[in-house]
## 1
Amino acid sequence: GAVVSQHPSRVICKSGTSVKIECRSLDFQATTMFWYRQFPKQSLMLMATSNEGSKATYEQGVEKDKFLINHASLTLSTLTVTSAHPEDSSFYICSASTTRRDRLSYEQYFGPGTRLTVT
Amino acid sequence: KQEVTQIPAALSVPEGENLVLNCSFTDSAIYNLQWFRQDPGKGLTSLLLIQSSQREQTSGRLNASLDKSSGRSTLYIAASQPGDSATYLCAVSQGGSEKLVFGKGTKLTVNP
């Protein structure tokens, strides 16, 4: 259980175009989803927190108009990179949060990631 | 601002060795600490989660300890195998928030 999928796994796009990445929780409902970015040999950096039915909360330094997040249902969140530039090339990973079995805390389950290359 | 540091950045050991990975965090007011495994070009697999009130968690050959007051955690891997080769990430969450702050990871190579 607790499987999170991402689509696509890899995408190459030209500079100036937009790319949409989907994150789905396959066997559970997630009220909260998170989007991370990981550059080579660097750690995961949280970009934004996405709650179903409300606007995403962006971390400091992340442009909300460039990275559009939509969380339309309890099982789907999308990240759209608008007007992509080569410096946006990175590994994007989403996670979905659900309560643990003890119902006392939450746990995040991570997707397999999407490799974005902007040429 | 919470900062998570992992030492060493890379580690290479022969198969069968027991090894320890280290994680330290600057703000001891954490909610929980997690250890993840990441294979090249892949997402994260959760290995162990330690609540702030706990001292350790075990799963198979893995044992994670937490010393919250000193801001440290260790991941102990017994009888390492080549299949253990991966990058191991440590992450902490603060009280009242689900946000995770990650370290840069330790890249482990277990040589047959």
## 2
Amino acid sequence: EADIYQTPRYLVIGTGKKITLECSQTMGHDKMYWYQQDPGMELHLIHYSYGVNSTEKGDLSSESTVSRIRTEHFPLTLESARPSHTSQYLCASSGASGSTDTQYFGPGTRLTVL
Amino acid sequence: AQSVTQLGSHVSVSEGALVLLRCNYSSSVPPYLFWYVQYPNQGLQLLLKYTSAATLVKGINGFEAEFKKSETSFHLTKPSAHMSDAAEYFCAVRGPNTPLVFGKGTRLSVIA
């Protein structure tokens, strides 16, 4: 059973607020990912990290930023939230290399910006 | 680059009927292929994965998928649908040491 946690599960905030979505995993995985998913839609990769102090942007342009100071922690920050950021954000991690590198997902954070 | 196409955004089957969810992939390298399931307000759960060990892959909850290189397909099947199978299903592909790329998803409805 994968142990990957996201907080908060639900967040409703006003425009212009700074927010940080938390993601932690207890599996010692080197690789971590953030996906954005609109309701009933596909997942888009917005950020990923293959290790401490290493972050990359994904396929979908995003105004968010990430950091990876500790192996187990991969927070996502929005400096100034807007209604267009309303979405579900899913965090994932993986640890092995090659064919056994399976991504495990957290429960997600559903963000609503008013 | 890798990509997947899921045919049919919504599939509806009767309880006890065969489930068939279609996925075709495109990859310039030997792909690793995955099926995930998502229940409402939850994250994604791995159903099964193909990693070149065997073309017929068995997963959890009675699902299986067959890798067909000639057809570039990785369709998901289950012989007999159960009400609890109603969910969103995502096919995904990746190359060596690259993140997953997901299809648009197929919503499965099961009718009693």
